[in-house]
Amino acid sequence: MKTQLYANIERYQDPNMPINPESIKIIESDFAKVDWAEQGKFNVCFFDVSPVTAQTYVDFFEKVLPVMENDSIIVFSNYSNDHSSKELNLAKEKYLQNYNVEFEVSRLSSGLSDSTRYYSGILILHVKKPLIKGKTI
User: Fold this and answer.
1) How far apart are CA 26 and CA 21, in angstroms?
2) Is 48 in a helix, a strand, or coil?
3) How far, CA to CA in Å, does 9 sit from each of 2, 6, 21, 34?
4) 8 A C-beta contact, residue 118 and residue 108
5) Tens digit of each residue's pLDDT (9 = 90 or more) over 84-120
6) Within a 10 A sphere around the Cβ of 37, how many other Cβ atoms?
7) Best CA proximity match to 74, nearest among 25, 124, 137, 28
8) pLDDT for the residue 81
9) How many C-beta atoms surround the C-beta of residue 57 within 10 A?
10) How far, in Å, CA of 47 to CA of 88, rounded?
11) Which of 5, 76, 99, 136 has the most CB atoms less than 10 A away?
12) Residue 118 phi/psi, 5° resolution?
């Protein structure tokens, strides 16, 4: 998976907005047990966890999203899977009520790997924490 991630970054990289591969941190342990406050702020998250349950998304939205920067991109894998997409959509409805979703794009594939290299579908979210009285919530 790491190799394909770096290959896709290279393939889709915008020359006007280069990505430094050395700035990418891959966490291969149980994300629900990571001390996210120690990770520092980040603004892009590729959430590729399997298997997925309703609790998986609850843990993401309660533990990971709050420590992300105010303006962030989240990419969820497994979106072509009916069960995963339903659980993710339910969690989004609950946890993104206090965020501005600037855009939401899905790319679905019919297999584990096809010409799009989306691997069973992805959902891309651009979320912003709204300002309230000059402060970000």
Assistant:
1) 11
2) coil
3) 11, 5, 8, 25
4) yes
5) 999 999 999 999 998 999 999 988 776 555 555 555 7
6) 9
7) 124
8) 85
9) 22
10) 11
11) 76
12) -90, -5
Please tell me the predicted confidence (pLDDT) of residue 58: 96
pTM over 0.90: no
Cα–Cα dist 113/122, whole Å: 12
Per run of 10 residues, the mean pLDDT along the chain (length 137 residues) is 73 74 83 90 89 93 93 90 92 94 85 57 90 60
Alpha carbon separation from 127 to 66, 74, 123, 137 (Å, rounded):
11, 8, 12, 13
How is 80-120 classified by DSSP, letter by letter? TSHHHHHHHHHHHHHHSTTSEEEEEEEE--SSSS-TT--SS
Nearest to 28 by CA among 55, 62, 5, 7: 5
